[in-house]
Amino acid sequence: LFFPGFQVAPETKAVMKWLRSIPFVLSASLHGGELVVTYPYDYSRHPMEEKMFSPTPDEKVFKMLAKAYADAHPVISDRSELRCGGNFVKRGGIINGAEWYSFTGGMADFNYLHTNCFEVTVEVGCEKFPLEEELFTIWHENKGALLNYMEMVHRGIKGIVSDKFGNPIKNARISVRGIQHDVTTGN
Question: Where is the Peptidase M14 domain (predicted)?
Fold first, then answer.
């Protein structure tokens, strides 16, 4: 995901180290400038292709996570195509990141490829830099959707991998048949 000569900022390195040290499983990155939920991959499989659908092996899970947010958001779930973010209505308010626009070095791709964390990107409003008086409304539009998204942490497989004596096994690899992406147990 990072290329030779690609400079990683110290704060980015710190976040990467933090993500590898704590077994997060779900996260969301909040952005402004549109009203849509995107999911990995954000980087196109073919770098010369600007808008190319680039699904992860966990495409169905990411779509479910993105929809959980979008469906609970009062504006994203609004079916009007004339509103902010209306060009994503036919897609249910979600899109594969690389299909929207491809970029390298994104947090969602990093989390998926290098940690056990599944991350979506939430574009919380069409203003890239909203005014202070708009923040209260943006918060209330996103609060329920954020809570609904956080509840998704209880979906899927969870438990403790232990040896025959009941001791937890650190870094045990867990594979799901039909999905070419393993996860590992935490500490």
Answer: 1-153
pTM: 0.90
Catalytic residue among 81, 123, 132, 134: 123
- Check residues 141 and 187 and name the one with the higher pLDDT: 141
For residue 16, how many other CB atoms are within 10 A of its CB? 17
Concerning whether 123 is annotated as a catalytic residue, the answer is yes
Start-to-end Cα distance in the chain = 26
Same domain membership, residue 113 and residue 182: no
Rounded to an integer, what distance in angstroms lies between the CA atom of residue 101 and that of residue 42? 7
Average pLDDT of every residue of the chain: 91
pLDDT for residue 8 is more than 60: yes
Residues of the domain holding 84: 23-156
Q: Is the pLDDT of residue 104 over 90?
A: no
Percent of all residues in the chain with a pLDDT value above 70, rounded to a whole number: 96
Give me 104's structure tokens: 């390298």
54 with 109, same domain? Answer: yes
Which residue stretches of 22-122 are H helix? 59-72, 97-100, 107-114
Taking the C-alpha atoms of residue 48 and residue 46, their distance in angstroms, rounded to an integer, is 6
What sign for the dihedral angle of Cα 127, 87, 149, 40? negative
